[in-house]
Amino acid sequence: MTKALGLGVAALAIGIAAGYWLAPAAPASAAAQPAERQILYWVAPMDKNYRRDQPGKSPMGMDLVPVYAENQAPVEAGVVSIDPAVVQNLGLRSVPAQRGPLPRRIETVGYVQYDESVMHHIHTRVEGWIESLHVRAAGDPVTKGQLLFEIYSPTLVNAQREYLTALTGGRPNMVVASRERLAALGMPQTEIAALEEAKTPRQRVRIYAPADAVTTHLGVREGIFVTPAAHVISMADLSRVWVLAEVFERQTAWVAVGQRAEVELDYLPGQRWDGAVDYVYPDLHPVTRTLRVRIGFDNAGEALRPNMFARVVLLGADTEPVVHIPREALIRGGAVDRVALDLGGGRFRAVPVAAGMEAGDRVEIRSGLNAGDRVVVSGQFLIDSESNLERALARAGSGAASPPPAQPTAGPHAH
């Protein structure tokens, strides 16, 4: 009996041991397994108010992005959080703000004009008729001493007779007075000398070109009656010309007489003219609101022709070191200028800044940014619209309490 009981106990022990070793391993505890991420809803990348309970497409045709429960922690006011995958898809780029000097370089346009200091305007000093006109049209070149036209004037004929009478009368005072009267009436010295030699009044008095030039205005035709008020001929010397550049009002403080300038023309690529500002006009154009700057150039080969379009660069001294960013990163607004600041980790915020001078593709930031802060240069308008900075600033300025934003429901809604 005792022996049989001992065999039974031994068999039971062996069975329990075999069951323990042969049984399958128990699953790990639920606490040890990673918890499954809970999706609250799906949202459009470009419109946070467009939400759905399941995956799909946004009205713009983009894939909806899941929003997880752990991402719903409160965030700083004005901060826009964007999924890194969406950041890459939208092509958002940011660059650091830099500190350094900015060149006062003005790139603008200009127009070639006649140098008014070497222009000649010809008027008759007596009434008469234009005869034997030798200049036929505006644009005709003339050389110094070339005959322009002949004029018949009874006043000049009578003045010549008085001079010849004074010469034969032997009265020096009358001779001097008569000769001065002929010169005052516009008779050239060469014609007076010819009169003294011929001793006969000339019916037609000849008028000659005072310099090598081109005709810019021809206001008479052969046979026409003219008075001293008539604008007969204008001529310009093309050996020297002006380039008139247009400078924006905000850049007027950068311009000064003597400043170095460079000019290029479209029809001569690669060729550059170096000059200097010789005059800054005192007023702005009433329509374009630009300041005119005059640059003089020698033009021996006449490559610079009046009314040609020119690209002008005015070079000034560099500024002191300042914080500056790409011009495309600056968002100009009616209330405040701002930039989209990249906080890292897909977080962005629009911040107000005080913009200063612009130089090329860079703009100075007087306040609101530090060197090294990253600003968005592509897609910043999307971030700015999300942060709604201008409305927040308006509320803060009025002193009104800012109500909390309404939270849309997680379920689908009509659009």
Chain-wise SSE layout:
Blueprint: H1 2-22, E1 39-44, E2 47-52, E3 65-68, E4 79-81, H2 84-90, E5 93-96, E6 98-100, E7 103-114, E8 119-122, E9 128-131, E10 141-142, E11 147-152, H3 154-169, H4 172-184, H5 189-198, E12 204-208, E13 213-218, E14 225-226, E15 233-236, E16 240-248, E17 260-265, E18 272-284, E19 290-298, E20 309-318, E21 322-326, E22 337-344, E23 347-359, E24 362-367, E25 374-378, H6 380-387, H7 389-398
Antiparallel strand pairs: 1-2, 1-3, 4-23, 5-25, 6-21, 7-16, 7-20, 8-15, 9-11, 9-14, 10-13, 11-12, 13-15, 16-19, 17-18, 17-20, 18-19, 21-24, 22-23, 23-24
Helix pairs in contact: 3-4
Instruction: Give the name of the CATH architecture of the largest domain.
Output: Beta Barrel
Average residue-wise pLDDT: 81
Write down the domain tally.
4
Structural class: alpha+beta
Supply Rg: 45 Å
Largest sheet: 6 strands, antiparallel
How many β-strands, per DSSP?
25
Give the terminus-to-terminus CA distance.
Answer: 89 Å
Class of the largest domain in CATH?
Mainly Beta
What is the 3D shape? rod-shaped
CATH-defined fold name of the largest domain = OB fold (Dihydrolipoamide Acetyltransferase, E2P)
CATH superfamily heading of the largest domain: RNA polymerase II/Efflux pump adaptor protein, barrel-sandwich hybrid domain
Strand content: 35-45%
> Which percent bin holds the helix content?
10-25%
Q: Regions with pLDDT < 50 over 5+ consecutive residues?
A: 1-32, 389-394, 396-415
**Number of helix segments?**
7
